[in-house]
Amino acid sequence: MNLTTQYMGIELKNPVIIGANHLSARLSNLEKMEQNGAAGIVFKSLFEEQLHFENLMLGTAIEEYSEIHPEITSPAFDLDFSGPKEYIYQLKKARKALKNIPLFASLNAVYDESWVDYALKIEKTGVQGIELNFYTVPRPDDFYGMNPEDRQSSILHNLKQALKIPVAVKLSPYSNNMVGLVRKMDSLGANAFVLFNRFFQPDIDIEKETLHFPYNLSQEGDYKLSMRFAGMLYKNIDAQICASGGVFNGYDIAKLVMAGADATQITSVLYKNGLGSITQIINELTQWMESKGYSNLDAFKGKLSHHTTKDDFVYSRAQYLDLLLNSKEMNKYLPQPVNK
Ligand SMILES: Cc1cc2nc3c(=O)[nH]c(=O)nc-3n(C[C@H](O)[C@H](O)[C@H](O)COP(=O)(O)O)c2cc1C
After folding, report:
1. Burial, 89: exposed, middle or buried (Cβ in 10 Å; 0-12, 13-18, 19+)?
2. Is the CB of 306 under 6 A from ligand 1?
3. CA distance 211 to 88
4. Using CA positions, which residue lies closest to atom 2 of ligand 1?
5. Residue 317 and residue 334: Cα distance in Å, rounded?
6. Residue 261 reports pLDDT greater than 80
7. CA of residue 175 relative to chain centroid, distance
8. How far is CA 36 from the centre of its chain?
């Protein structure tokens, strides 16, 4: 059985990549992920915002200390913003820990200059590629400035000029024109798209009447959002399509590949079912392929994409109105009664 595929133009032994998350910060987890069959790992993101915040906290702590001890006139160490040194250090260790699979970094910077500056530092660690974790909450003054998606495109353009290693764009699912945005970034040279990121969502405890922040893990079945866009983008762009969000088993991957995905990323399933789920997912995909007589992924990739089926009803409609008005069309997709 040949499960090989590509992500960012790099050959992978199978379509199961570990999505960026905090489990990757521990070397023993990285090793286990590789042993269990992961084809590649995305290291947790470097968030520039967090670096600034940590620096601010450190500055405040030192100021307080100086006040308690008035004889200390200058702090013992340089308070200049130390940048992403710690992340780079961890990334180098992670790269060494993996034997035969690619490691990808992930970056979420704030300023245009830091996107390039940090990415160049990351490139030197020997990682095989960088995922751009594009998400910003626009500030009020951004409404009068550059559209955030145009800004992301400009950052991508700058990075493609500066870097030698490939670049993937990990997008938020909230765009008014997702296919247009992806096609534009594709023309700027993005090597892959990760569809989609999933965000931290606050909740409210109605007994205590307080806000809280539960781990926002995906649920089984959530893969459908990504599947739809994989289906629309297949053969529409040059870059590889990596489906992410709600991938829990090998059958989800079979569906995503059939829609047009080249690879997939998994995260929530690892938190819910442990690192052993990697092997199980690969086994399920292999068994399903065997049962269908498929010897490689290309044998069914895109089989049910928009490009192949030309099914506008499925891929172009998002509202339920059609389903209600067009019941004849809808009947094609409903289970048919069994004739006795
Ligand atoms: C605990 C946790 C930490 C995450 N950290 C990152 C991160 O550092 N960078 C990033 O781009 N995505 C991060 N993600 C998002 C995942 O990489 C992934 O895109 C998302 O969870 C959807 O995949 P899933 O449904 O398999 O969980 C994180 C997700 C979780 C649950």
Report:
1. exposed
2. no
3. 34
4. 21
5. 17
6. yes
7. 16
8. 20
Lowest mean pLDDT among 130-134, 176-180, 295-299, 328-332: 328-332
The reply to whether ligand 1 has any atom less than 6 angstroms from the CB of 19 is yes
CB of 153 shorter than 6 A to ligand 1? no
Q: How far apart are CA 57 and CA 59, in angstroms?
A: 5
Per-residue pLDDT reduced to its tens digit, 111-166: 888 899 999 999 999 999 999 999 876 666 665 667 888 889 999 999 999 999 99
Tokens of 205: 């405890």
Neighbours of 283 (CB within 10 A): 13
Q: What is the pLDDT of residues 185-203, one digit of tens each?
A: 999 999 999 999 988 788 9
Q: Which residue carries 């960026």 as its tokens?
A: 20
pLDDT > 80? residue 335: no
CA–centroid distance, residue 263 to ligand 1 (Å): 16
Read off the pTM.
0.89
- Ligand 1 atom nearest to CA at 19: 17
Q: Where are the alpha helices (DSSP H) in 124-266?
A: 148-162, 178-187, 223-233, 250-259
Question: For the chain, which domains are there?
Answer: 5-302 (3.20.20.70)
Q: What radius of gyration, in Å, describes the C-alpha atoms of the chain?
A: 22
